[in-house]
Write a structure and sequence with these properties.
Elements lengths: L1 H7 L6 H25 L8 H23 L2 H4 L8 H15 L3 H18 L2 H6 L1 H14 L4 H51 L2 H16 L6 H34 L7 E4 H12 L3 E4 L5 E4 L1 H18 L4 E8 L2 E7 L7 H4 L19 H11 L3 E6 L4 E8 L5
Parallel strand pairs: 2-4
Antiparallel strand pairs: 1-3, 4-5, 5-7, 6-7
């Protein structure tokens, strides 16, 4: 079990994984150099000083392997393991000078170094590594009087290892993007499941209660109460439909890259009042009777309903909807007097799955869809911290509809 755990720690993403992979390469290089030194593979052409140098190189590799394995790289920063390239190139230069141009002795490890860099670095970083790698290989060969062979071997080796590193880097980046798409698809599937489990159950319960009440009555139910029950059922059915429309909107943004709108000039106060009546919450409306905007009525209702539902659910009264003209735009403010949005959540407020807060029934799509709908109208949605509650402002163009 322990061996399996150690093996598993070598794969994945993050600084700890990168460092442990580097530790494995250092340990491999140190072990092989140690074997060469002990067995006297180069005894025919070398001396005891050569063996001592090889033992020193092996020791340096093994020390770097231990440091790479045991240092707390995650706490040192996400890019911290990349400093391991520095001792690798220094040892590489030392070994190249020791092997005096024997490419089979140092070339494979330079290839492994660039493959490791390609797994964890972008292509531009791999290409930048080519310069110090060239110097660490060419300069020792020139110091060892390898002559033209030094240049030839450098011309052959360095482009090859850099190409390997660049190819690995591009492929690793592609794989990370594919994994991110799969992660987001799984998150989207989970969000749909959560939405169906939470947001649909409550209105369906209300619809069922209203229908059962109407069914079980024997004719003694007053017409006013019957109409009220039917109104409840219709309102909750409309809520389910809006939820379905929101999920479809999110899918359209992904698949089509935009939303199609039926834009026409509509009276803003009438639209706001319909949303407030449908919501059934304590909301004050301060919108002029003569104010109109070019918008898709259903989409604008969806924007306002999302913002008002959040204000009623998470804020505190009074919840106020107001509007004003500002240059060539109309600003619609939805303000509550609750605790507001915590600073740590504001950056992700309009991102998909980002604004769930502490609400277990929220899947974080409402504000994201709200902004997408506003942008489809040529406007936007922004958040303002008022000091006493939250204020969301819908910016809409006031000119003629396209």
């Amino acid at each position: 079990m322990r061996a399996r755990s150690l093996w598993g720690s070598l794969w994945g993403e993050g600084p700890e994984v990168a460092a442990r992979q580097a530790a494995l390469l250092y340990a491999l290089a140190g072990t092989l150099v140690l074997v060469l030194a002990v067995t006297g593979l180069f005894a025919r052409t070398g001396t005891s000083s050569r063996a001592t140098t090889l033992l020193t190189i092996a020791a340096a590799d093994l020390v770097c392997a231990a440091l790479a394995w045991f240092l707390p790289w995650a706490r040192l920063g996400p890019r911290s393991p990349y400093v391991l390239c520095v001792p690798a190139l220094v040892i590489q230069a030392w070994a190249t000078w020791t092997f005096a141009g024997f490419v089979a002795g140092t070339g494979p490890f330079l290839m492994l170094l660039f493959a490791w860099a390609g797994l964890h670095l972008p292509v531009r970083a791999v290409l930048a590594l080519a310069v110090p790698a060239t110097l660490s290989y060419l300069m020792p060969l020139l110091a060892a009087d390898s002559g033209p062979a030094a240049v030839y071997s450098t011309v052959l080796l360095i482009p090859a290892v850099v190409a390997v590193g660049a190819i690995v880097s591009r492929q690793a980046a592609h794989q990370r993007r594919a994994n991110e798409r799969l992660r987001r698809a799984e998150q989207w599937r989970a969000a749909l499941t959560s939405t169906l489990a939470h947001d649909v159950r409550s209105p369906l319960t209300s619809v069922r209660f209203a229908l059962e009440s109407v069914r079980d009555e024997t004719g003694d139910l007053p017409p006013e109460e019957r109409r009220a029950l039917v109104a409840v059922a219709l309102r909750q059915a409309a809520r389910i439909r809006r939820l379905a429309d929101g999920l479809l909107d999110a899918d359209r943004v992904d698949s089509e890259g935009g939303l199609r709108l039926d834009v026409r000039r509509i009276p803003l106060r009438e639209t706001v009042q319909e949303v407030v009546d449908d919501l059934g919450g304590p909301v004050e409306v301060d919108v002029g009777e003569d104010l109109t905007v070019p918008a898709d009525p259903q989409r604008l209702e969806q924007v306002l309903l999302n913002l008002l539902a959040n204000a009623v659910r998470h804020g505190a009264p009074p919840v106020v909807v107001s509007a004003e003209r500002a240059g060539g735009t109309v600003l619609v403010h939805v303000r509550d007097h609750g605790p507001g949005v915590p600073p740590q959540r504001r950056d992700a407020l309009f991102s998909r799955f980002g604004a769930t807060g502490d609400d277990p029934q929220s899947v974080g799509l409402g504000l994201w869809i709200t902004r997408e709908l506003a942008r489809a109208h040529g406007g936007d949605v922004r958040y303002t911290d008022t000091g006493e509650g939250a204020c969301f402002t819908v910016v809409l163009p006031s000119g003629d509809p396209p």
